[in-house]
Amino acid sequence: MLPDDLPVDHQKLLTWETECWQCGEQTPVVWPRGDHLDTPLGDILANYETPVERVYSNTLSKKVWGNVCQHCDSYQGNHFIQQEALEIDPPLVDCPHCGDEHEWSPDQGMGGAFGQGWVSCPEYGEIPVGDPRGE
Questions:
Q1: Range of the domain at 111
Q2: Are 79 and 15 contained in the same domain?
Q3: How far apart are CA 17 and CA 73, in angstroms?
Q4: How many domains does the chain have?
Q5: In a structure prediction context, what are the per-residue pLDDT tens digits for the chain, which is 135 residues long?
Q6: Which pTM was predicted?
């Protein structure tokens, strides 16, 4: 899905297809591993054949770099695409109890709004851990 001449290490990008919230069709999206799309990287991706464009975010009330549906041109929402990216490629964090690395998952409730998440430790169970991405 990424062009061969893209001047970005392809290993630093996740690509997959998601269901468009507007038309319901499957559409390709791209998201940087451990980073955010609304950075200078978005500008680079938008200049190549990718689903990234400059779009208006109603939530943020400003223009951002975001993925758009290849069928209906609807902005897919960076928050939702970032959440899918975390499910596809969760960051590893040190468990505060056993010290081993475990996959981090964002809190799906109110804690998610405050950067709260969880690790599932085989020894100690579900343990709350802050967002390792520093957000």
A1: 92-130
A2: yes
A3: 15
A4: 2
A5: 799 999 999 999 999 999 999 999 999 999 999 889 999 999 999 999 999 999 999 999 999 999 999 999 999 999 999 989 988 988 888 999 999 998 888 877 766 667 788 888 999 889 888 878 665
A6: 0.76
